[in-house]
Structure formats: structure tokens, C-alpha cells
Design goal:
Blueprint: H1 3-8, E1 11-16, E2 21-26, E3 29-32, E4 42-48, E5 54-61, H2 69-80, E6 90-95, E7 104-112, H3 114-128, E8 133-136, H4 137-140, H5 142-146, E9 155-161, E10 166-172, E11 175-181, H6 186-197, H7 203-212, H8 220-247, E12 255-260, H9 268-276, E13 280-282, H10 298-306, H11 332-347, H12 352-440, E14 444-453, E15 456-465, H13 468-481, E16 486-496, E17 501-510
Length: 511
């Protein structure tokens, strides 16, 4: 809050719309508000989680006049991000001073669906009526540099685990560079832990284990799965770091600040430093606030700190649509009332009948106009909702088809593997047994074939012998000794005069 606002407001309330959590500060004392209420002398600030907005880096020619930049950025956002033109997205931006180009200026643009704003903040607005400022969470980190809480330069990575989201943010030389929502929130980590454990553990108990014991829990079974789980988490973080360094031409990350909305996760920063080979420390800073409770959610402290800075020393990016009404004389309703009052005074000069008719028509017009605006807004909102749902359905159908294809591919591969494991050893076994019997009767084998017809599995042996008697004796022996395993059939024994040998085809059917 700048100096002008400090003179107008006696307290600041920070709002977490996703957990319905409120903190109120008076001077440097910060406390949790269990029953928040509306107050004219109270300044309200909240934040947007990384899942709630789209961010992108947009370039704009330096030849464009300053007054035209908002319109140019808005048009480029719709084109570059392929946004639905039917939805009036709310956009805001901050200039990226660490991108140097002779012909272009660069801006970090943040895009929010107004419907999601209304849904996320509905309960908060019901409690405190107005929210003066809503800032994307990654931009709050600028306060740490402005207040010199972090006083070293370089490339810093901030990772903060929340119940429904985990944000990953990069700052380079005290300036915002990139942010992303990681797929491992505390809820998702909890679900994966239960999968590894093989039993369902409540979210509350799991968070209590992380908060009280961290990765060094005394339960060996829990510790084993936690180590495996966080190996997966940091593998994902490593992939994101690799992409960020390549995309933004960053040579190395100097420091990682990692933490969570829990009081602490013991060993998390040490694990980060060991796994990623980057200097890491806990995401926990001295903001200069005193509190009755020991633990303060870092985002609440950052929001409170943000309000103490002049606008030129922070990123000005406000997505609030829940602003306070202007003074009465500046409101549209106030102007209408004043004009109506003036018209009534003038109308009193005329006969009572003319005055009554004029007032009645004016009142009727006002009511119809209000009804029209209400119906029109409802129609536009519902059309936007329908189009958004249709887009989600198309994406879901694509994802479903891809999953089905992947499932079928894996299924076919497993069937082939099973066929090789089961059938090939069985064929070799039968061949070994039968060829031993051929050797007993000194019968040569010149050809083997194998066929499967419906449910029948048949070997065909081409036999060669000096006498037909040996072939006959072999058949007699096989028929008696292996009648429970095979069915044998021999159509004929032919004599080859040229080679002076007897040749026959023995069919062996597996029972």
C-alpha cells in the first residue's frame, strides 16, 4: 500500500481464496482472522494461484506509442495464445526489463478467465464485500528484493507447495522471469504416497507427518515411501529447471528457496540441494511481523509486505473485479438520482398531471433498462460458460482417445510377451522328448513343421530310415507310451529308390 492508502486505511487484511483463510495486520502485528468482516477502513489484498492464470512473454515493437500498448498487447495475447474471442479475458502485464532487444519491448502478460475469478472469490466477497487488489502469486516475490530480505543477486528459484497447487518461479537479477504450476501439490503428493503405501491415509494425518517429522520420519515404512515419492517430485522439478534454463538462456541456477504452507518439512531443503546439486534453503523469511501464532503462511506475509511498498517499487498487476464503489456523486446510480431529483424539481413547475406522466415513464424506462442489462449479462455469461465447457470436452475426448491407444498398445505387447514366455518353452520341451525317441530307433529327421488350427497344435516330422520296420516300431512305441500326451498319425511309408531310404510324415497332435 502506498502512502496515500496508508493514510486512508487503518488495517490490511490478506485473503487466501482457495482455503478461505484471512490474516489481518495493524502496524507490524499480524494475526489470523477467524471471523472476517467488512470495514471501510480496511484494505483487502489477495492473490491468484498459478493454476488460475495463463502467463506468457509478449514482444511489442518499440515504435508503438505508449498509449496504444495495452490494446496491442491484448490483441497479441488473443492471437499468440489462441484464446476464444467470445470470452472477454481479463489481462494485465508488467514489462520484462531483463530482455534486451534493439527493436522490441517485452512484457510478461497474465490472462485470467473472469468466470474463474468470480467462482474463486465468491465466498470471500460475501464476507468482506470488496477486494482492493488481486496479484498473481509469483509477482509478490518482488517484495523480498525491494525490502532487501534477499540481498544477493543472481538467478533464484522459488518452489512453494500448497494443498491444491505448487508454484515454481524464477527471478533473475531481482526481476521476474518465469512461473509454472507444478503437478505435485500437497494433495497429489498425498494420493501418490497412499498408492505407494498400499493403504489409505487421511490427508490431515499425512500433512501432520510432513509437518512434525518431515522426510526423516521415525516410521521406516513411511520414510522409505517418502524418499521414493520425493525422488519423483524432484525429477519433475529437474525437468522444469532444464526447460527454463534452455528457454530463457540461463547458464545456472544460483539458489533455490523451497518450502510449503505447512510450518516446515524437515529435510526438504537438504534433499533439494543433494538431488539438484544447487544451493537450497527453506522458503521462510523474516518479514518483520509479530504474531500470536508461531507459523504464518508465507503468501500471507508476502501479501502484507506487498501493500507496504510504493507502486513504483513493486509489480503493479491488479486483477480485482470486486472494487469499492466510487463516491456517490461519481456513481452512475448517483448521477441518475441527482438528475432525477433535478427533473422532479423542474417538473413541479408544470401541472401535476404532466409531472406524474413524465415521472412514470422515466421510472418505467429505468426498470426496463435494468431488466435488460441483467438478462443480457446472464446470457453472455452462460454463452461463455457453454463454450468453455465444450472446449474442455474436446480436450477430454482427445485425452481419452490417446489413453485408449496407449492401453491397447501395452495390452498387445504384453500378450506377445506372454506368448513367447509360455508357448516357446513348451514347443522346445515337446521337440526334445520326441527327438530322443527318434534317436532310440536310429531314425533321421529331415524336416519339422508346427501349425495351430483353431485349438489344435500339431507337429509334422519328416522321417527317414533304412528300413520301414524301424518306422513301424517307432510308431508302435509312441502310440503305447505317450497316448495320454499326443495323438499320432502316419499316412504312408514311401520308398525312395534313388536314395534307398524309406520316407514318411509323422503327425503329432498335442492333447
Amino acid at each position: 500500500m502506498n502512502q496515500e492508502k496508508q493514510q486512508s486505511f487503518t488495517s490490511v487484511i490478506s485473503v487466501d481464496p482457495y482455503k478461505q483463510e484471512y490474516y489481518k495486520s495493524i502496524s507490524s502485528h499480524l494475526n489470523k482472522e477467524l471471523a472476517p468482516q467488512y470495514s471501510k477502513s480496511q484494505y483487502a489484498i489477495s492473490y491468484l494461484g498459478t493454476k488460475s492464470f495463463i502467463s506468457a512473454l509478449i514482444s511489442v515493437s518499440k515504435n508503438i506509442p505508449e498509449d496504444d500498448i495495452p490494446d496491442v498487447i491484448e490483441n497479441k495475447v488473443y492471437e499468440d495464445l489462441a484464446l476464444d474471442m467470445a470470452i472477454s479475458y481479463k489481462t494485465s502485464y508488467v514489462e520484462a526489463y531483463n530482455n534486451v532487444n534493439e527493436s522490441n519491448r517485452f512484457f510478461h502478460v497474465f490472462v485470467v478467465d473472469p468466470l474463474s475469478l468470480e467462482e474463486d472469490f465468491k465466498n470471500c466477497v460475501d464476507e468482506i464485500k470488496y477486494i482492493d487488489q488481486i496479484v498473481p502469486a509469483p509477482l509478490l516475490l518482488k517484495s523480498l528484493y525491494t525490502k532487501e530480505i534477499i540481498d544477493d543477486a543472481g538467478v533464484h528459484c522459488f518452489i512453494y507447495f500448497q494443498e491444491d497447487d505448487t508454484f515454481f518461479t524464477i527471478y533473475n537479477e531481482n526481476e521476474f522471469v518465469y512461473t509454472k504450476s507444478l503437478k505435485y501439490s500437497l494433495k497429489e503428493i498425498h494420493q501418490r504416497f497412499c498408492e505407494l503405501l498400499g493403504e489409505q491415509l487421511s490427508l490431515g494425518i499425512f500433512l501432520q507427518i510432513l509437518s512434525n517429522e518431515g522426510l526423516a520420519t521415525t516410521n521406516k515404512e513411511y520414510q522409505k515411501h517418502l524418499i521414493k515419492l520425493f525422488a519423483e517430485v524432484f525429477l519433475h522439478i529437474s525437468d522444469v529447471l532444464t526447460y527454463t534454463k534452455r528457454a530463457f538462456e540461463i547458464e545456472k541456477i544460483d539458489h533455490i528457496y523451497i518450502g510449503s504452507e505447512l510450518s516446515a518439512i524437515a529435510g526438504l531443503d537438504e534433499y533439494s540441494q543433494t538431488y539438484l546439486a544447487i544451493k537450497s534453503s527453506e522458503f521462510n523469511f523474516n518479514y518483520g511481523y509479530t504474531a500470536d501464532t508461531g507459523h504464518i503462511n508465507q503468501l500471507h506475509a508476502l501479501m502484507q509486505l506487498y501493500t507496504t511498498l510504493p507502486s513504483e517499487q513493486r509489480y503493479e498487476c491488479n486483477f480485482s473485479i470486486f472494487n469499492r464503489p466510487p463516491p456517490f456523486v461519481q456513481r452512475e446510480s448517483g448521477k441518475i438520482i441527482l438528475l432525477t431529483s433535478a427533473a422532479m424539481v423542474i417538473a413541479l413547475i408544470y401541472p401535476i398531471m404532466n409531472w406524474s406522466l413524465s415521472y412514470a415513464e422515466s421510472l418505467r424506462y429505468t426498470i426496463l433498462d435494468a431488466n435488460y442489462n441483467e438478462v443480457h449479462n446472464t446470457r453472455v455469461t452462460r454463452e461463455a460458460t457453454v463454450k468453455l465447457k465444450e472446449a474442455h470436452k474436446v480436450e477430454a475426448d482427445k485425452l481419452k482417445k490417446a489413453e485408449e491407444n496407449e492401453y491397447n498398445n501395452k495390452k498387445n505387447t504384453l500378450m506377445k510377451i506372454r506368448d513367447v514366455k509360455v508357448n516357446y518353452p513348451m514347443k522346445a520341451k515337446h521337440l526334445t522328448e520326441l527327438t530322443k525317441d527318434l534317436n532310440k530307433y536310429s531314425i533321421l529327421l529331415t524336416k519339422i513343421s508346427y501349425t495351430e488350427e483353431k485349438m489344435d497344435k500339431v507337429f509334422v516330422f519328416t522321417l527317414v530310415s533304412a528300413t520301414d520296420k524301424k518306422i513301424t516300431e517307432l510308431l508302435e512305441y509312441l502310440t503305447k507310451s505317450k497316448k495320454n500326451e499326443y495323438k499320432f498319425s502316419l499316412q504312408s511309408i514311401d520308398y525312395n529308390k534313388k536314395e534307398e531310404r524309406y520316407i514318411s510324415e509323422l503327425k503329432v497332435k498335442l492333447l
